[in-house]
Amino acid sequence: MGSAGLNRARAKMADAGVDEVAIETFAHYYRLLEHGETGMVPESSIEPIEIDHLDDVEVTDDVAAEAVRATAVVKLNGGLGTSMGMERAKSLLCVRKGLSFLDIIARQVLHLRREYDATLPLLMMNSFRTSDDSMAALERYDGLQVDGLPLEFLQNKEPKLLVDDLQPVSWPRDPTLEWCPPGHGDLYTALRGTGLLDRLIDAGYRYAFVSNSDNLGAVPDPRVAGWFADSGAPFAIEAVRRTASDRKGGHFARRRRDGRIVLRETAQTPEGDKAALADLDRHRYCSTNNLWFDLAAMKQALDVRAGILGLPLIRNVKHVDPGDPSSPEVVQVETAMGAAVEVFDDALLIGVGRDRFVPVKTTDDLLVLRSDVYALGGDFVLDQQTERVPYVDLDDRHYKRVDEFDKRFPDGAPSLREAHSLTVEGDWTFGRDVRVVGDVRLEAGKAKRVESGATLDGGLADG
Question: What is the set of active-site residues?
Answer without folding.
Answer: 361
